[in-house]
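Board notes (copied after class):
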Amino acid sequence: MTSSEINALANLAGVEGRSVSELGAAAGVRPTTLTGVLDRLERRGHITRGTRTGDRRTVLIELTPSGRAAADTIRQAISDLEHRGLADVPPAAVAGFHTVLQALTRACR
């Protein structure tokens, strides 16, 4: 699985579904760039594409059971890595780091 596919699955974990635009914003990727990633994930059976109730123009991306399992594994691996990496960092420093990351994320939009 590519890093782009991992990123997409991680950003679909825990949600009922996202539009391509919403997923692109969450993953930090343009919707047009996501097309190939979503094609590969759909071929592997990890996602489905559908429409949002009441808005047939919006493509809704949802995880399949195998996609949910993969996304859960990815999210757990990320969480474990974060906990190991930040174990010796004081909580105030972690909070400051998250604040900086959020500011950078907003600036890049």
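Comment from the instructor: DSSP finds five helices and three strands in the chain. Helices lie at 3-12, 20-27, 31-43, 65-86, 91-108.
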